[in-house]
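Subject: design request, 272 residues
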């Protein structure tokens, strides 16, 4: 049975305005009758154990599972900057372990420029393999999310290539419906070779690999999302017998709280 969770970054503007913190986010997820939360490290005020214990207990008391812990990494950076990225990732993987999150979302990152793309891919593969090994020692799966036109993991082919090259049993995939090339949510300048990219083909390629699925939501008109075809997307998800978390990720322009309540109601029937 698929279950519905919500990402802290869905309320990015509300957090930045100081109108929400981790505690009110957890309360809001309970009010929306969600099943779990997806926590990004930026939403945490501390990584100290007493603070994390309170966050974990707040979720437990409200019947919310910590479905995923999200770590923003940039492993395509130059060699002399990778050690800092690896240490940052290790720190947050330990937090994911403390929370009991089964999956930690990672990014491959971006190349310095197009001429650097292949070299940056190789550097990111090495880092993702190392973090898969480290995550395995903690009992946390390291899962790569597809991300943006300019980044290293833009298409289904890119995801498949990473899975092959990282080649680790503790490596997995977070499928983001709105971040494949060709999606309206894939930000950044679209390179000429991707201007006709088919995001639905990428979803079909990678759905069998996904251990966590993020549903990007932008515009819900007359009660339905108009930017992406979710009837088609959930048809793909069901066809591979996916039985994990569906994460609501809002990136529209409406007021966060109002918009997310509508989008939770939109997504819930797809999980039945």
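Subject: RE: design request

Done. Sequence follows.
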């Amino acid at each position: 049975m698929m279950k519905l969770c919500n990402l802290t970054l869905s309320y990015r503007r509300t957090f930045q305005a100081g109108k929400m913190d981790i505690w009110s986010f957890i309360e809001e997820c309970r009010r929306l009758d969600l099943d779990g939360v997806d926590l990004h490290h930026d939403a945490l005020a501390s990584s100290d154990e007493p603070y994390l214990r309170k966050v974990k207990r707040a979720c437990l008391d409200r019947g919310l599972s910590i479905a995923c812990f999200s770590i923003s990494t940039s492993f395509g950076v130059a060699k002399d900057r990778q050690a800092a990225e690896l240490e940052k990732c290790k720190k947050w993987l330990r937090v994911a372990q403390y929370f009991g999150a089964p999956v930690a979302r990672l990014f491959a990152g971006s190349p310095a420029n197009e001429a650097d793309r292949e070299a940056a891919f190789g550097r990111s593969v090495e880092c993702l393999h190392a973090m898969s090994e480290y995550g395995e020692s903690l009992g946390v799966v390291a899962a790569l999310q597809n991300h943006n036109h300019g980044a290293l993991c833009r298409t289904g082919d890119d995801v498949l290539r990473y899975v092959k090259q990282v080649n680790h049993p503790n490596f997995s995939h977070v499928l983001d419906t709105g971040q494949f090339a060709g999606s309206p949510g894939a930000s950044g300048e679209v390179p000429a070779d991707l201007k006709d990219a088919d995001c639905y083909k990428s979803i079909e390629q990678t759905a069998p690999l996904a251990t966590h699925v993020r549903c990007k939501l932008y515009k819900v008109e007359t009660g339905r999302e108009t930017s992406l075809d979710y009837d088609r997307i959930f048809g793909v998800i069901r066809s591979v017998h996916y039985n994990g978390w569906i994460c609501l990720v809002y990136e529209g322009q409406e007021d966060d709280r109002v918009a997310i309540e509508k989008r939770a109601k939109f997504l819930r029937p797809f999980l039945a």
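The first helix runs from residue 12 to 16.
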